[in-house]
Design a protein that fits this description.
By secondary structure, the chain is mainly alpha-helical. It folds into three domains: about 80 residues, no CATH class; about 240 residues, MFS general substrate transporter like domains (Growth Hormone, Chain: A, Up-down Bundle), CATH 1.20.1250; about 55 residues. About 75% of the residues lie in helices and about 0% in strands. The protein contains 20 helices and no strands.
C-alpha cells in the first residue's frame, strides 16, 4: 500500500497532463485507503472491543496536528511550487512507514522464536490445486462482483454532469443498471454460491451491521453534499485566505480529534455505544440545518464556525460508534472484512454526495449568476462561474462580488437542504442497531 501511495505522489509531482494526474490519483487513492485500513486492522488486533473506541480515538489524534499544519503548508506550496506539495511527502512517507513496517516484522520474528507463531505445514497441493484453493479462499467471484458493481454504479455519479445528455445518456444508464445488477449478484453469490464467503451471510443480514452501514452511507452523502465547495465558499463570501479557509474546514479534524477520546472513555465506561448515536444523529442534523440559515449573505463567519463545531462533535461520535457497532456484531476472524464492508457503504455515500453537490452547483450557480450579476458583467458569467481566481479578483463590496456572493448563498443553501433531508433518514437507521453490551471476550480469535 505504501508503494502505491508513493507512486501516486511521484506521478502527481511530475505530471504535465490530465491523464498522468488521473493515473496518480488512482494509485494515491488505493495506497492511502489501504494504509488507513491497515492501521485500523492493527488497531482491531491490539485492543479489546470495549476499548476499541478509545483505540480508534488514539489513531485519529494526528489529525489535530495536520489540521493546523496542512492549510499553512498548502498556501506556501501554492505560492511557490505546488509540485513540492507532493514531492515533500515522497520523502516523508517512507521515513514514517519503514520504521513501523520494521517494528511489525521484528515482533513477528519474536513471536516465531517464542513459539507463538508457527509455520504452516506444506499443503501438498499441486500448482493448479493451489490456484483453485486460493480462488475459493479469497472468494474471487464475490470480490469481482462487488468491485465491478461499485465501480460501475459509482462512476456515473462522477461523470454524468459532463455527459452530453446528463443522466439521460445511454452509457450512464447502462453503467448504473449493470452496476446495480452486479451488487445484487454479489449478495446472492455470498448467500447461495460461495463456499468461503467474503462475509458470512449472518453478518450481512445482521441488523446492527445494516443499521451502522446505512447511517455511514447517509452521513457521507449528507456531508459531501456541501463540503466539496466549502473552502471556495469561505474565500469568496468571507474573503478568507486559502490558509484560513483550510483552518475553518479543518475544525472537524481538530474538535473531533480531541472529542473522540471522550467518546472512547464513554463507551469503555458504559460498555454501550447506541446511546451516543441517539445523541449524535440529531445534533448533526441540527448543525447542517442551522448552516442553511447562516448561508445567507452578510452573516458573520462565526456562525459557520459554530455549526462546524456541532458537526464535529456529532460526526466524530457517529464514526466511532459505526465502527464499534459492526465490530460488535462480528467475530475476530471476520473483523477486517466487516470493517471493509462499512467502508464500502461510506465510499458509496461519499460518491453520491459529491455527485449531488456537483449537480446542484451545475444547475444552480449559472442561473443565479445570470440573475444577480450587474449588466456590465453579465457577458462574463461563464468565466466567473468556471474560475475561482476570477471570482476572487473582484474586491469585497464590488457589485460583481456581491452578486457572486448571492449566487454562492443560493447554491450552498440547496446543497445543505439536500444534505439535511438525506441525513434525516438516519433517525430511522439508528433504531435498527441493537444495544450491544461490549465485553472483553468478544475479541477472541485469530485475525488472519
Amino acid at each position: 500500500m505504501a508503494t502505491f501511495f508513493l507512486l501516486g505522489l511521484i506521478l502527481a509531482a511530475t505530471c504535465n497532463d490530465i491523464g498522468t494526474y488521473c493515473a496518480s490519483q488512482v494509485f494515491y487513492a488505493i495506497g492511502s485507503a489501504g494504509l488507513i485500513f491497515c492501521v485500523d486492522v492493527v488497531t482491531i488486533d491490539t485492543s479489546t472491543l470495549r476499548s476499541r473506541g478509545l483505540a480508534y480515538a488514539l489513531t485519529s489524534s494526528p489529525f489535530i496536528i495536520t489540521a493546523y499544519a496542512g492549510p499553512a503548508a498548502a498556501e506556501q506550496f501554492y505560492d511557490t511550487n505546488w509540485r513540492w506539495g507532493y514531492g515533500t511527502f515522497c520523502i516523508v512517507l517512507p521515513a514514517v512507514v519503514l520504521p513501523f513496517f520494521g517494528l511489525l516484522r521484528y515482533f513477528k520474528s519474536k513471536a516465531k522464536k517464542n513459539g507463538l507463531l508457527k509455520d504452516k505445514p506444506k499443503s501438498g497441493r499441486t500448482f493448479k490445486e493451489n490456484v483453485w484453493y486460493y480462488i475459493i479462499e479469497f472468494d474471487v467471484l464475490g470480490v469481482f462482483l462487488l468491485t465491478a458493481g461499485l465501480a460501475l454504479f459509482l462512476l456515473p455519479f462522477t461523470i454524468a454532469g459532463s455527459a452530453e445528455d446528463d443522466w439521460k445518456s445511454a452509457h450512464i444508464i447502462v453503467m448504473l443498471v449493470i452496476g446495480f445488477c452486479c451488487l445484487i449478484a454479489f449478495a446472492l453469490a455470498e448467500r447461495f454460491l460461495a463456499p468461503v464467503p467474503f462475509l458470512p451471510w449472518e453478518l450481512l443480514a445482521n441488523r446492527t451491521v445494516i443499521g451502522a452501514c446505512l447511517i455511514d452511507a447517509t452521513y457521507q452523502i449528507s456531508y459531501y453534499c456541501w463540503y466539496d465547495y466549502f473552502t471556495s465558499y469561505l474565500q469568496v463570501v468571507f474573503g478568507t485566505s486559502l490558509a484560513t479557509a483550510g483552518y475553518i474546514a479543518s475544525i472537524f479534524d481538530v474538535v473531533s480529534g480531541v472529542w473522540l477520546f471522550c467518546v472512547g472513555f464513554a463507551i469503555k465506561g458504559s460498555r454501550r455505544f447506541r446511546w451516543l448515536l441517539w445523541i449524535a444523529v440529531p445534533l448533526y442534523i441540527l448543525g447542517i440545518g442551522l448552516m442553511i440559515y447562516f448561508r445567507r449573505p452578510h452573516f458573520s463567519v462565526g456562525y459557520t464556525i459554530m455549526c462546524q463545531i456541532f458537526i464535529a462533535f456529532a460526526g466524530g461520535t457517529m464514526i466511532i460508534c459505526q465502527q464499534v457497532a459492526v465490530l460488535s456484531a462480528s467475530d475476530h476472524n471476520n473483523a477486517a472484512a466487516a470493517l471493509a464492508f462499512l467502508n464500502v457503504f461510506g465510499n458509496i455515500g461519499g460518491g453520491i454526495g459529491g455527485s449531488i453537490s456537483g449537480a446542484v452547483w451545475t444547475h444552480t450557480m449559472p442561473d443565479a449568476l445570470q440573475k444577480y450579476l450587474p449588466a456590465e458583467a453579465l457577458a462574463d458569467w461563464e468565466t466567473i462561474y468556471e474560475d475561482l481566481a476570477t471570482q476572487l479578483s473582484y474586491p469585497m463590496g464590488d457589485p460583481v462580488r456581491e452578486a457572486i456572493i448571492k449566487a454562492y448563498a443560493v447554491a450552498q443553501s440547496r446543497m445543505l437542504i439536500a444534505g439535511t433531508c438525506i441525513m434525516a433518514t438516519s433517525l430511522i437507521w439508528m433504531f435498527i442497531i441493537k444495544d450491544v453490551k461490549l465485553t472483553k471476550t468478544q475479541t477472541k480469535g485469530v485475525l488472519f
